[in-house]
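Researcher: Let's run the pair from yesterday's discussion. Sequence first, then C-alpha coordinates, for each.
Model: Starting with the first of the pair.
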Amino acid sequence: MDILYITPDKVEAFLSWNGVMEAMIEGHRHEKAQIDDMFLQQSDNTLLNRAAAIQGLGMGVKCASIFPGNTSLFPPQPSVNSMFLLFNETTGKVDSLIDGNFLTKWKTAGDSVLGSRFLARPDSRTLTILGAGVVAESLISAYTDAFPKLDQVLIWNRSHVRAERLADRLTSLALPVKAVLNLQEAVERADILSSATMSKEPLIKGSWVQPGTHVDLIGAFRPDMREADDDLVRQSSLFVDARETTLDDIGELSIPIAKGVIGREDVRGDFYDLCNGSERRESDSEITLFKNGGGAHLDLMTAKYICRVADSLHKY
Protein backbone atom coordinates (compact mmCIF):
# COMPACT_ATOMS: atom_id res chain seq x y z
CA MET A 1 0.00 0.00 0.00
CA ASP A 2 1.23 3.50 -0.80
CA ILE A 3 2.35 5.77 2.00
CA LEU A 4 -0.33 8.32 2.82
CA TYR A 5 0.90 11.91 2.97
CA ILE A 6 -1.45 14.00 5.09
CA THR A 7 -1.34 17.78 4.89
CA PRO A 8 -3.54 20.42 6.55
CA ASP A 9 -5.55 21.18 3.42
CA LYS A 10 -6.91 17.61 3.45
CA VAL A 11 -8.24 17.33 6.98
CA GLU A 12 -7.77 20.41 9.18
CA ALA A 13 -11.27 21.81 8.63
CA PHE A 14 -12.69 18.56 10.04
CA LEU A 15 -10.58 18.39 13.22
CA SER A 16 -11.68 19.63 16.64
CA TRP A 17 -9.91 20.39 19.90
CA ASN A 18 -12.35 18.12 21.70
CA GLY A 19 -11.46 15.35 19.26
CA VAL A 20 -7.74 15.75 20.03
CA MET A 21 -8.37 15.76 23.78
CA GLU A 22 -10.54 12.65 23.61
CA ALA A 23 -7.85 10.89 21.53
CA MET A 24 -5.28 11.71 24.22
CA ILE A 25 -7.54 10.49 27.01
CA GLU A 26 -8.18 7.24 25.13
CA GLY A 27 -4.47 6.85 24.39
CA HIS A 28 -3.61 7.09 28.07
CA ARG A 29 -5.91 4.17 28.80
CA HIS A 30 -3.68 1.87 26.76
CA GLU A 31 -0.59 0.21 28.13
CA LYS A 32 1.98 2.86 29.09
CA ALA A 33 3.91 4.25 26.14
CA GLN A 34 7.54 3.59 25.44
CA ILE A 35 9.11 6.95 24.58
CA ASP A 36 12.55 8.32 23.88
CA ASP A 37 14.03 11.63 22.71
CA MET A 38 17.24 12.69 21.03
CA PHE A 39 18.48 16.29 21.06
CA LEU A 40 21.33 17.63 18.93
CA GLN A 41 22.23 21.27 19.51
CA GLN A 42 24.32 23.77 17.55
CA SER A 43 24.29 27.15 19.30
CA ASP A 44 20.60 28.15 19.49
CA ASN A 45 19.56 25.65 16.82
CA THR A 46 18.19 22.23 17.75
CA LEU A 47 17.49 18.96 15.97
CA LEU A 48 14.93 16.97 17.91
CA ASN A 49 13.85 13.37 17.30
CA ARG A 50 11.00 11.92 19.35
CA ALA A 51 9.85 8.30 19.14
CA ALA A 52 6.97 6.41 20.75
CA ALA A 53 5.40 2.97 20.73
CA ILE A 54 2.05 2.14 22.36
CA GLN A 55 0.81 -1.45 22.42
CA GLY A 56 -2.45 -1.55 20.48
CA LEU A 57 -2.02 1.94 19.01
CA GLY A 58 1.14 1.89 16.92
CA MET A 59 4.59 3.42 16.59
CA GLY A 60 5.76 6.80 15.39
CA VAL A 61 8.72 9.15 15.10
CA LYS A 62 8.80 12.93 14.72
CA CYS A 63 11.91 14.71 13.48
CA ALA A 64 11.97 18.48 13.98
CA SER A 65 14.46 21.31 13.52
CA ILE A 66 14.09 24.40 15.72
CA PHE A 67 15.91 27.47 14.36
CA PRO A 68 14.74 30.51 16.43
CA GLY A 69 16.63 32.95 14.18
CA ASN A 70 14.45 32.11 11.18
CA THR A 71 11.87 34.69 12.25
CA SER A 72 14.49 37.43 11.74
CA LEU A 73 15.25 36.42 8.15
CA PHE A 74 13.88 38.37 5.21
CA PRO A 75 11.39 37.14 4.39
CA PRO A 76 10.76 35.46 7.77
CA GLN A 77 10.83 31.66 7.77
CA PRO A 78 9.16 29.20 10.17
CA SER A 79 11.35 28.54 13.20
CA VAL A 80 10.16 24.92 13.40
CA ASN A 81 10.12 22.42 10.53
CA SER A 82 9.15 18.79 11.06
CA MET A 83 7.69 15.53 9.76
CA PHE A 84 5.98 12.63 11.55
CA LEU A 85 6.18 9.00 10.41
CA LEU A 86 3.43 6.62 11.53
CA PHE A 87 4.46 2.95 11.38
CA ASN A 88 2.16 -0.04 11.10
CA GLU A 89 2.29 -1.95 14.38
CA THR A 90 1.93 -5.33 12.66
CA THR A 91 4.27 -5.03 9.66
CA GLY A 92 6.55 -2.12 10.59
CA LYS A 93 5.84 -0.43 7.26
CA VAL A 94 5.30 3.34 7.11
CA ASP A 95 1.54 3.86 6.90
CA SER A 96 1.44 7.65 6.92
CA LEU A 97 3.66 10.69 6.63
CA ILE A 98 2.11 13.72 8.32
CA ASP A 99 3.19 17.34 8.03
CA GLY A 100 4.91 17.75 11.39
CA ASN A 101 4.18 21.44 11.97
CA PHE A 102 0.48 20.79 11.37
CA LEU A 103 0.55 17.79 13.72
CA THR A 104 2.51 19.70 16.37
CA LYS A 105 0.01 22.55 16.31
CA TRP A 106 -2.84 20.22 17.25
CA LYS A 107 -0.74 18.14 19.66
CA THR A 108 0.80 21.09 21.53
CA ALA A 109 -2.35 23.12 22.09
CA GLY A 110 -4.38 19.96 22.68
CA ASP A 111 -1.85 18.84 25.32
CA SER A 112 -2.11 22.17 27.18
CA VAL A 113 -5.85 22.56 26.99
CA LEU A 114 -6.33 18.96 28.17
CA GLY A 115 -4.13 19.70 31.19
CA SER A 116 -6.23 22.78 31.85
CA ARG A 117 -9.45 20.84 31.45
CA PHE A 118 -8.37 18.75 34.44
CA LEU A 119 -6.64 21.48 36.48
CA ALA A 120 -8.05 24.96 35.73
CA ARG A 121 -11.17 26.31 37.43
CA PRO A 122 -14.17 25.76 35.10
CA ASP A 123 -15.36 29.32 35.81
CA SER A 124 -12.07 30.87 34.57
CA ARG A 125 -12.74 34.23 32.92
CA THR A 126 -9.38 35.68 31.85
CA LEU A 127 -6.87 33.85 29.68
CA THR A 128 -3.40 35.39 29.51
CA ILE A 129 -1.06 34.26 26.75
CA LEU A 130 2.68 34.98 26.94
CA GLY A 131 4.13 34.87 23.44
CA ALA A 132 2.73 35.87 20.06
CA GLY A 133 3.92 33.17 17.69
CA VAL A 134 2.15 30.34 15.89
CA VAL A 135 1.73 28.36 19.12
CA ALA A 136 0.08 31.33 20.86
CA GLU A 137 -2.53 31.61 18.13
CA SER A 138 -3.45 27.92 18.31
CA LEU A 139 -3.59 28.12 22.11
CA ILE A 140 -6.14 30.92 21.94
CA SER A 141 -8.24 28.87 19.52
CA ALA A 142 -8.08 25.80 21.76
CA TYR A 143 -8.73 27.59 25.05
CA THR A 144 -11.64 29.70 23.84
CA ASP A 145 -13.26 26.55 22.46
CA ALA A 146 -12.71 24.48 25.63
CA PHE A 147 -13.57 27.18 28.20
CA PRO A 148 -16.82 28.85 27.11
CA LYS A 149 -16.93 31.08 30.22
CA LEU A 150 -13.79 32.98 29.20
CA ASP A 151 -14.66 36.61 28.60
CA GLN A 152 -11.28 38.11 27.67
CA VAL A 153 -7.87 37.18 26.31
CA LEU A 154 -4.73 39.17 27.16
CA ILE A 155 -1.54 38.79 25.09
CA TRP A 156 1.92 39.83 26.22
CA ASN A 157 5.03 39.51 24.08
CA ARG A 158 8.54 40.97 24.30
CA SER A 159 7.76 42.64 20.98
CA HIS A 160 4.53 44.48 21.72
CA VAL A 161 3.99 45.05 18.01
CA ARG A 162 3.76 41.29 17.45
CA ALA A 163 1.25 40.99 20.30
CA GLU A 164 -0.85 43.76 18.71
CA ARG A 165 -0.72 42.05 15.33
CA LEU A 166 -1.92 38.78 16.82
CA ALA A 167 -4.75 40.55 18.67
CA ASP A 168 -5.77 42.27 15.43
CA ARG A 169 -5.93 38.91 13.61
CA LEU A 170 -8.35 37.59 16.23
CA THR A 171 -11.03 40.27 16.04
CA SER A 172 -13.49 37.67 14.75
CA LEU A 173 -13.56 35.92 18.14
CA ALA A 174 -16.66 36.39 20.23
CA LEU A 175 -14.64 37.85 23.12
CA PRO A 176 -12.17 40.75 23.33
CA VAL A 177 -8.49 40.05 22.69
CA LYS A 178 -6.09 42.72 23.94
CA ALA A 179 -2.32 43.18 23.69
CA VAL A 180 -0.86 44.41 27.00
CA LEU A 181 2.49 46.10 27.64
CA ASN A 182 3.01 45.22 31.30
CA LEU A 183 4.03 41.60 32.00
CA GLN A 184 3.23 41.74 35.71
CA GLU A 185 -0.26 43.08 35.02
CA ALA A 186 -0.87 40.38 32.41
CA VAL A 187 0.12 37.65 34.89
CA GLU A 188 -1.78 39.09 37.85
CA ARG A 189 -5.05 39.29 35.89
CA ALA A 190 -4.95 35.69 34.66
CA ASP A 191 -7.25 32.88 35.71
CA ILE A 192 -5.41 30.72 33.18
CA LEU A 193 -1.85 31.71 32.28
CA SER A 194 -0.41 29.98 29.23
CA SER A 195 3.21 30.72 28.36
CA ALA A 196 4.76 29.85 24.99
CA THR A 197 8.02 31.78 24.82
CA MET A 198 11.63 30.92 23.99
CA SER A 199 12.86 32.29 27.32
CA LYS A 200 16.05 30.91 28.85
CA GLU A 201 15.55 32.86 32.09
CA PRO A 202 12.39 32.76 34.24
CA LEU A 203 10.02 35.56 33.30
CA ILE A 204 6.99 34.59 35.47
CA LYS A 205 7.39 35.48 39.13
CA GLY A 206 5.53 33.50 41.76
CA SER A 207 4.67 36.71 43.63
CA TRP A 208 2.59 37.83 40.63
CA VAL A 209 0.43 34.70 40.33
CA GLN A 210 -2.89 34.95 42.16
CA PRO A 211 -4.50 32.16 44.22
CA GLY A 212 -6.61 29.85 42.06
CA THR A 213 -4.61 30.48 38.88
CA HIS A 214 -3.76 27.63 36.54
CA VAL A 215 -0.32 28.03 34.94
CA ASP A 216 0.38 26.23 31.67
CA LEU A 217 4.06 26.25 30.66
CA ILE A 218 4.94 25.31 27.09
CA GLY A 219 7.98 27.21 25.87
CA ALA A 220 10.93 25.55 27.62
CA PHE A 221 11.98 22.43 25.74
CA ARG A 222 15.74 22.30 26.46
CA PRO A 223 17.80 21.81 29.65
CA ASP A 224 18.82 25.50 29.63
CA MET A 225 15.31 26.97 29.28
CA ARG A 226 12.81 28.14 31.91
CA GLU A 227 9.68 30.33 32.05
CA ALA A 228 8.73 30.15 35.78
CA ASP A 229 10.85 31.23 38.74
CA ASP A 230 11.65 29.10 41.79
CA ASP A 231 8.95 30.77 43.91
CA LEU A 232 6.21 29.80 41.47
CA VAL A 233 7.46 26.23 41.18
CA ARG A 234 7.74 25.94 44.97
CA GLN A 235 4.26 27.26 45.76
CA SER A 236 2.34 25.39 43.04
CA SER A 237 0.76 21.97 42.81
CA LEU A 238 2.90 20.46 40.07
CA PHE A 239 1.71 18.34 37.15
CA VAL A 240 3.28 17.28 33.87
CA ASP A 241 2.11 15.61 30.70
CA ALA A 242 4.80 12.90 31.02
CA ARG A 243 7.36 12.47 33.76
CA GLU A 244 9.77 10.84 31.31
CA THR A 245 10.02 13.92 29.10
CA THR A 246 9.88 16.72 31.68
CA LEU A 247 11.81 15.89 34.84
CA ASP A 248 15.29 15.28 33.46
CA ASP A 249 15.64 16.90 30.04
CA ILE A 250 13.78 20.22 30.39
CA GLY A 251 15.11 23.03 32.57
CA GLU A 252 11.68 24.11 33.80
CA LEU A 253 11.71 21.34 36.42
CA SER A 254 15.17 19.76 36.14
CA ILE A 255 16.90 22.97 37.29
CA PRO A 256 14.81 23.47 40.47
CA ILE A 257 15.13 19.74 41.19
CA ALA A 258 18.92 19.97 40.87
CA LYS A 259 18.97 23.04 43.15
CA GLY A 260 16.85 21.32 45.80
CA VAL A 261 13.96 23.76 45.39
CA ILE A 262 11.64 20.79 44.81
CA GLY A 263 12.01 17.02 44.71
CA ARG A 264 10.87 14.67 41.98
CA GLU A 265 8.21 13.44 44.40
CA ASP A 266 6.65 16.94 44.42
CA VAL A 267 5.25 16.34 40.93
CA ARG A 268 1.80 15.08 41.84
CA GLY A 269 0.84 13.49 38.55
CA ASP A 270 1.03 13.23 34.79
CA PHE A 271 -1.58 12.41 32.15
CA TYR A 272 -1.68 8.77 33.18
CA ASP A 273 -2.90 9.96 36.59
CA LEU A 274 -5.13 12.77 35.30
CA CYS A 275 -6.80 10.81 32.51
CA ASN A 276 -7.56 7.92 34.84
CA GLY A 277 -8.98 10.09 37.61
CA SER A 278 -6.43 9.67 40.38
CA GLU A 279 -5.39 13.36 40.51
CA ARG A 280 -7.28 16.66 40.21
CA ARG A 281 -7.26 20.25 41.46
CA GLU A 282 -8.06 20.15 45.18
CA SER A 283 -9.41 23.67 45.85
CA ASP A 284 -10.39 26.91 44.13
CA SER A 285 -7.50 28.73 45.84
CA GLU A 286 -4.81 26.27 44.77
CA ILE A 287 -2.24 27.37 42.18
CA THR A 288 -1.79 24.53 39.71
CA LEU A 289 1.21 24.37 37.39
CA PHE A 290 1.26 22.08 34.34
CA LYS A 291 4.43 21.57 32.33
CA ASN A 292 3.70 20.73 28.71
CA GLY A 293 6.86 18.93 27.65
CA GLY A 294 5.40 17.26 24.60
CA GLY A 295 6.48 13.72 23.97
CA ALA A 296 6.19 11.49 20.94
CA HIS A 297 3.40 9.43 22.54
CA LEU A 298 1.21 12.56 22.36
CA ASP A 299 2.24 13.05 18.73
CA LEU A 300 1.31 9.42 18.12
CA MET A 301 -2.12 9.79 19.75
CA THR A 302 -2.77 12.97 17.75
CA ALA A 303 -1.53 11.35 14.54
CA LYS A 304 -3.90 8.41 14.98
CA TYR A 305 -6.78 10.86 15.45
CA ILE A 306 -5.80 12.82 12.33
CA CYS A 307 -5.52 9.59 10.33
CA ARG A 308 -8.96 8.43 11.49
CA VAL A 309 -10.48 11.72 10.34
CA ALA A 310 -8.60 11.60 7.03
CA ASP A 311 -9.67 8.00 6.47
CA SER A 312 -13.30 8.88 7.08
CA LEU A 313 -13.08 11.60 4.44
CA HIS A 314 -11.31 9.44 1.82
CA LYS A 315 -9.29 12.51 0.78
CA TYR A 316 -5.87 11.05 0.24
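Model: Moving on to the second of the pair.
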Amino acid sequence: MTRGSTLPAHRLSHLSGRVAIPTLPEQTRNTPSAPWLEGFNTASAEEAHATLLSCLSSRHWARRVTAHRPYPTPDALLAASDEAAYDLSAGDLAEALAGEPLPALPADAYGAAHMALDAAHAAYEARFGHAFVLYLGDTPREETLDHILEAIRSRLTNDPDKEREVVAEELRRLARERLMTHFRGAGNGATRHDAPADGT
Protein backbone atom coordinates (compact mmCIF):
# COMPACT_ATOMS: atom_id res chain seq x y z
CA MET A 1 0.00 0.00 0.00
CA THR A 2 1.41 3.38 -0.94
CA ARG A 3 1.03 6.09 1.64
CA GLY A 4 0.08 9.59 0.62
CA SER A 5 2.56 12.40 0.83
CA THR A 6 0.87 13.80 3.93
CA LEU A 7 1.53 10.69 6.00
CA PRO A 8 4.66 10.55 8.13
CA ALA A 9 7.31 8.00 7.23
CA HIS A 10 7.61 4.93 9.42
CA ARG A 11 10.30 5.38 12.00
CA LEU A 12 11.48 2.77 14.44
CA SER A 13 12.16 4.30 17.81
CA HIS A 14 13.31 3.71 21.33
CA LEU A 15 9.76 3.27 22.60
CA SER A 16 9.87 -0.52 22.67
CA GLY A 17 11.12 -1.86 25.92
CA ARG A 18 10.55 1.41 27.72
CA VAL A 19 9.13 0.87 31.16
CA ALA A 20 6.68 3.34 32.60
CA ILE A 21 7.78 5.04 35.79
CA PRO A 22 4.59 5.33 37.85
CA THR A 23 5.99 7.90 40.28
CA LEU A 24 9.18 9.79 40.81
CA PRO A 25 11.57 8.51 43.47
CA GLU A 26 10.28 9.34 46.93
CA GLN A 27 13.07 11.78 47.72
CA THR A 28 12.57 13.61 44.42
CA ARG A 29 8.77 13.60 44.46
CA ASN A 30 8.47 15.04 47.94
CA THR A 31 11.33 17.56 47.81
CA PRO A 32 10.16 20.95 46.51
CA SER A 33 13.78 22.07 46.14
CA ALA A 34 14.87 19.11 43.97
CA PRO A 35 17.85 20.41 41.96
CA TRP A 36 16.38 19.40 38.60
CA LEU A 37 13.11 21.19 39.38
CA GLU A 38 14.94 24.32 40.48
CA GLY A 39 16.91 24.15 37.25
CA PHE A 40 13.73 23.86 35.20
CA ASN A 41 12.05 26.68 37.10
CA THR A 42 14.97 29.05 36.62
CA ALA A 43 15.93 28.12 33.05
CA SER A 44 15.23 30.60 30.30
CA ALA A 45 11.87 30.26 28.58
CA GLU A 46 13.69 29.05 25.46
CA GLU A 47 15.55 26.33 27.38
CA ALA A 48 12.42 25.15 29.20
CA HIS A 49 10.46 25.17 25.95
CA ALA A 50 13.13 23.07 24.21
CA THR A 51 13.17 20.57 27.07
CA LEU A 52 9.41 20.19 26.93
CA LEU A 53 9.35 19.81 23.13
CA SER A 54 11.68 16.83 23.54
CA CYS A 55 8.85 15.19 25.49
CA LEU A 56 5.93 16.21 23.24
CA SER A 57 6.14 18.05 19.91
CA SER A 58 3.36 20.52 20.65
CA ARG A 59 4.37 24.16 20.88
CA HIS A 60 1.07 25.03 22.58
CA TRP A 61 1.62 22.39 25.28
CA ALA A 62 5.23 23.43 25.81
CA ARG A 63 4.31 27.13 26.04
CA ARG A 64 1.57 26.47 28.60
CA VAL A 65 3.76 24.31 30.82
CA THR A 66 6.62 26.80 30.55
CA ALA A 67 4.39 29.78 31.33
CA HIS A 68 3.15 28.34 34.64
CA ARG A 69 6.59 28.12 36.23
CA PRO A 70 7.77 28.04 38.93
CA TYR A 71 6.45 24.69 40.09
CA PRO A 72 6.65 23.99 43.82
CA THR A 73 6.85 20.22 43.44
CA PRO A 74 7.38 17.60 40.71
CA ASP A 75 3.74 16.56 41.12
CA ALA A 76 2.65 20.12 40.34
CA LEU A 77 4.67 20.04 37.12
CA LEU A 78 3.10 16.72 36.11
CA ALA A 79 -0.38 18.05 36.88
CA ALA A 80 0.30 21.07 34.67
CA SER A 81 1.52 18.76 31.92
CA ASP A 82 -1.68 16.74 32.11
CA GLU A 83 -3.89 19.83 32.12
CA ALA A 84 -2.13 21.32 29.09
CA ALA A 85 -2.35 18.01 27.24
CA TYR A 86 -6.09 17.76 27.84
CA ASP A 87 -6.48 21.16 26.20
CA LEU A 88 -4.83 20.35 22.85
CA SER A 89 -6.79 21.40 19.77
CA ALA A 90 -7.03 19.29 16.62
CA GLY A 91 -4.18 21.34 15.16
CA ASP A 92 -2.07 20.84 18.29
CA LEU A 93 -2.66 17.09 18.11
CA ALA A 94 -1.63 17.04 14.46
CA GLU A 95 1.57 18.90 15.31
CA ALA A 96 2.37 16.52 18.16
CA LEU A 97 1.65 13.47 16.03
CA ALA A 98 3.94 14.72 13.26
CA GLY A 99 6.83 14.55 15.72
CA GLU A 100 6.02 11.11 17.11
CA PRO A 101 8.05 8.02 16.28
CA LEU A 102 6.17 4.77 15.82
CA PRO A 103 6.27 2.23 18.64
CA ALA A 104 9.08 -0.10 17.64
CA LEU A 105 9.65 -3.79 18.06
CA PRO A 106 12.48 -5.21 20.14
CA ALA A 107 15.73 -5.24 18.20
CA ASP A 108 15.73 -9.03 17.89
CA ALA A 109 12.19 -9.33 16.50
CA TYR A 110 11.98 -11.57 13.46
CA GLY A 111 11.41 -10.22 9.95
CA ALA A 112 7.81 -11.41 9.63
CA ALA A 113 6.92 -9.45 12.76
CA HIS A 114 8.27 -6.28 11.19
CA MET A 115 6.25 -6.96 8.05
CA ALA A 116 3.06 -7.51 10.04
CA LEU A 117 3.60 -4.36 12.04
CA ASP A 118 4.43 -2.31 8.95
CA ALA A 119 1.22 -3.48 7.27
CA ALA A 120 -0.82 -2.65 10.37
CA HIS A 121 0.72 0.81 10.60
CA ALA A 122 0.00 1.45 6.92
CA ALA A 123 -3.65 0.44 7.38
CA TYR A 124 -3.96 2.74 10.38
CA GLU A 125 -2.33 5.68 8.62
CA ALA A 126 -4.51 5.15 5.55
CA ARG A 127 -7.63 5.34 7.72
CA PHE A 128 -6.72 8.20 10.03
CA GLY A 129 -4.01 10.11 8.12
CA HIS A 130 -1.42 10.15 10.88
CA ALA A 131 1.04 7.90 12.64
CA PHE A 132 -0.12 5.42 15.25
CA VAL A 133 0.91 6.28 18.81
CA LEU A 134 0.70 4.03 21.82
CA TYR A 135 1.84 4.33 25.41
CA LEU A 136 3.53 1.02 26.12
CA GLY A 137 3.57 1.48 29.86
CA ASP A 138 4.84 -1.60 31.63
CA THR A 139 4.12 -3.96 28.74
CA PRO A 140 6.64 -6.82 29.02
CA ARG A 141 9.20 -6.76 26.21
CA GLU A 142 8.15 -10.15 24.91
CA GLU A 143 4.53 -8.98 24.62
CA THR A 144 5.28 -5.76 22.72
CA LEU A 145 4.36 -7.04 19.25
CA ASP A 146 1.07 -8.61 20.31
CA HIS A 147 0.17 -5.51 22.32
CA ILE A 148 0.85 -3.10 19.45
CA LEU A 149 -0.94 -5.22 16.85
CA GLU A 150 -3.94 -5.75 19.11
CA ALA A 151 -4.15 -2.01 19.81
CA ILE A 152 -3.94 -1.07 16.13
CA ARG A 153 -6.60 -3.59 15.12
CA SER A 154 -8.89 -2.49 17.91
CA ARG A 155 -8.47 1.20 17.14
CA LEU A 156 -9.05 0.70 13.42
CA THR A 157 -12.71 0.19 14.35
CA ASN A 158 -12.92 3.68 15.90
CA ASP A 159 -14.50 6.55 14.04
CA PRO A 160 -12.19 9.57 13.58
CA ASP A 161 -13.66 11.52 16.50
CA LYS A 162 -13.26 8.62 18.89
CA GLU A 163 -9.72 7.97 17.66
CA ARG A 164 -8.78 11.60 18.26
CA GLU A 165 -9.84 11.16 21.88
CA VAL A 166 -7.73 8.01 22.18
CA VAL A 167 -4.74 9.67 20.52
CA ALA A 168 -4.97 12.65 22.87
CA GLU A 169 -4.90 10.35 25.89
CA GLU A 170 -1.96 8.34 24.51
CA LEU A 171 -0.01 11.55 23.88
CA ARG A 172 -0.79 12.82 27.39
CA ARG A 173 0.52 9.60 28.92
CA LEU A 174 3.62 9.63 26.71
CA ALA A 175 4.37 13.25 27.60
CA ARG A 176 4.01 12.51 31.30
CA GLU A 177 6.27 9.47 31.13
CA ARG A 178 8.90 11.33 29.13
CA LEU A 179 8.89 14.22 31.59
CA MET A 180 9.44 11.83 34.48
CA THR A 181 12.12 9.93 32.59
CA HIS A 182 13.87 13.12 31.50
CA PHE A 183 13.98 14.66 34.94
CA ARG A 184 14.84 11.43 36.69
CA GLY A 185 17.81 11.24 34.34
CA ALA A 186 18.66 14.88 35.00
CA GLY A 187 18.60 14.18 38.70
CA ASN A 188 21.10 11.37 38.13
CA GLY A 189 23.35 13.50 35.96
CA ALA A 190 22.00 12.19 32.65
CA THR A 191 20.78 14.48 29.91
CA ARG A 192 18.79 12.24 27.55
CA HIS A 193 15.13 11.38 28.10
CA ASP A 194 15.08 8.76 25.38
CA ALA A 195 17.74 6.28 26.43
CA PRO A 196 16.56 2.68 26.16
CA ALA A 197 15.73 0.83 29.31
CA ASP A 198 18.40 -1.50 30.65
CA GLY A 199 18.54 -4.75 28.76
CA THR A 200 17.00 -3.40 25.55
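Researcher: Give me one sentence on the second I can quote.
Model: The longest helix spans residues 160-187.
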